[in-house]
Design a protein that fits this description.
By secondary structure, the protein is mainly alpha-helical. The protein contains four helices and no strands.
Length: 97
């Protein structure tokens, strides 16, 4: 079985995190609109908004675990260290006049 490379896995988990946060925010927004409709004496609209927001409550849980999983992935470092950067600058020939 082929394993996904670590950067691709991290990108996929990050995309899942963004989608989960967006859908959880939508659920919270529907709850707030439902509360506003309820206090405006629109009980039928409030009931509909509360009912629709229940399906988005499941998206409140995954962001925590996805963020934890993203932080545990060790990616290989491609940054040049300071010592290598300084040594490469000193090795380059200067302009001779």
């Amino acid at each position: 079985m082929m394993r996904l490379s670590k950067p691709i896995l991290r990108d996929a988990l990050g995309l899942g995190l963004i989608i989960s946060v967006a859908l959880a925010s939508l659920g919270i927004l529907l709850d707030m609109l439902g509360a506003l409709a309820y206090f405006s004496n629109e009980a039928s609209i409030a009931t509909l908004l509360f009912h629709e927001s229940f399906s988005f409550l499941i998206f409140l849980i995954p962001p925590y675990f996805l963020a934890k999983a993203i932080m545990n992935i060790d990616l290989p470092s491609t940054r040049v260290s300071d010592s290598q950067r300084h040594s490469s600058q000193h090795e380059q020939p200067g302009a001779e006049v």
